[in-house]
Write a structure and sequence with these properties.
There is one protein chain. By secondary structure, the protein is of the alpha/beta class. The chain has 16 helices and ten strands. The strands form two sheets. It has a six-stranded mixed beta sheet with strand order 7-6-5-8-9-10. The chain has a four-stranded parallel beta sheet with strand order 2-1-3-4, with helices on both faces. The chain is globular, with a radius of gyration of 22 Å.
Length: 414
């Protein structure tokens, strides 16, 4: 995921095996992967064959040729998505390529099926693709949606932008799935601490795909102000420190330029430590160990800290609490308060597929965030969000997304 921030983690309940890596190798060797294709229809007689294949299938093809939208009625398109990657930013492993990324994409397909009943298939490209967007668009006819996964920035931004008008939902989960879950967690963190969302000064540690999307959502960059209020301000830090308007080299990166123009209202400069001084919350989507207890102590009283680097967070929860943090969340399931984008993407795509959506609007993403936040009726500092394996979460998010798709004009009428 992007960057090292919201990996799926170990979904093994309370069991902690001695060597999860060895066990995982054995599992994958035993089953030769995690997914397969099953037939929905019988194929036992010549009549079965005539209905499923030739000659009967010709009439189905003629109907779809007359009205392409009938593919949602007669084919797998209505409930199938492609999980597309080039393997350029896989978990904490970096640019390992499309072939090595297959196990992760299979795992995500498994989550789609188990949590949301969606058929998903890995499409893993290999090497540098100058026409990556064209390649993805050319496979779109088969699918009802496309989930972009583990693609390095800035290519992931450019690819998603190019694919927004191909007639089906296309969403880079590392960006928007993470942003949706973070917004939900911030809403509930405010409920727990008594802080006002619109008063928050937030530091984002990491300006990759996840950091960029979180920033845009929390600051309402590109979002309608009618959807929700922006936080007061955000200070974004990358490996060079605080992003600000006067920083050299900013114009060479369109996305960091946008961040500089829309955030850091006071023009603060310096390091991550400088950014965190006097902040209300810090959201880390960067690298392990970058946040120190001293940085936490410099924040405003009762600070909110989301340390989402994976597998090791920017600061360990115990260290953050000792330094005065009121709420600490990580991307891991062996600590309380896991913030994982797997809470968002199954329900978002389930809702989008249910209405044969033409895209995923801002309204749909914000609706998903509020559905997640509302699912936890009484949030606590150690439980901001619901459990990933609770299937009722998918139902709640999907219902909210369906309604938002209809209201925002993204639902397709057959």
């Amino acid at each position: 995921m992007q960057p090292d921030s919201t990996g799926v983690g170990i979904l093994a309940g309370d069991r902690k095996p001695g060597n999860i890596y060895e066990e995982s190798l054995e599992l994958h060797e035993k089953y030769h992967g995690k997914i397969e294709v099953f037939s929905k229809v019988p194929l036992a007689t010549r009549h079965d064959l005539a209905l499923a294949y030739t000659p009967g299938v010709a009439e189905v093809c003629r109907e779809i040729a007359r009205n392409r939208d009938l593919a949602y009625k007669y084919t797998l398109k209505a409930n199938t998505i492609a999980i597309v990657t080039d393997g350029s930013r896989v978990l904490s492993l970096g640019n390992i390529g499309g072939v090595a990324a297959i196990p992760v994409m299979e795992g995500k397909a498994l989550l789609f099926k188990k949590l949301a009943g969606i058929d998903a298939f890995p499409i893993c490209f290999e090497g540098s693709h100058t026409e990556f967007a064209d390649s993805v668009q050319n496979i779109a006819p088969v699918f009802g949606g496309i989930a972009l996964e583990d693609i390095a920035a800035p290519k992931c931004f450019e690819l998603e932008e190019k694919l927004q008008n191909i007639g089906i939902p296309v969403m880079h989960d590392d960006q928007h799935g993470t942003a949706v879950v973070v917004l939900a967690a911030i809403i509930n963190a405010c409920r727990v601490t008594g802080k006002r969302f619109e008063d928050l000064d937030i530091v984002i540690c990491g300006a990759g795909a996840a950091g960029y999307a979180i920033t845009r959502m929390l600051k309402c960059i590109g979002y309608s102000p009618d959807l929700f209020r922006s936080v007061h301000d955000i200070c974004v830090c990358d490996s060079q420190g605080i992003i600000h308007r006067r920083r050299e080299g900013l114009y060479s990166n369109k996305y960091k330029f946008i961040i500089a123009e829309e955030t850091n209202l006071s023009g603060r400069q310096g390091s991550l430590a400088d950014a965190m001084d006097g902040a209300d919350a810090c959201i880390g989507v960067s690298v392990p160990g970058i946040i120190t207890p001293g940085m936490v102590r410099s924040m405003n009283p009762d600070p909110i800290l989301f340390a989402l680097a994976h597998p090791m967070p920017e600061i360990m929860p115990a260290d953050a609490f000792r330094a005065g943090a009121a709420i600490v969340a990580t991307g891991r399931n062996d600590f309380p308060n896991q913030i994982n984008y797997a809470l968002a993407f199954p329900g978002i795509f389930r809702g989008a597929l249910d209405v044969h959506a033409t895209g995923i609007s801002d309204e749909m993403k914000v609706a998903a965030a509020h559905a997640l936040a509302s699912f936890v009726r009484y949030p606590r500092k150690d439980r901001l969000l619901p459990q990933i394996l609770n299937r009722n979460v998918v139902k709640a998010v999907a219902a909210a997304v369906r309604n938002a798709a209809i209201e925002s004009g993204c639902a397709r009428t057959l």
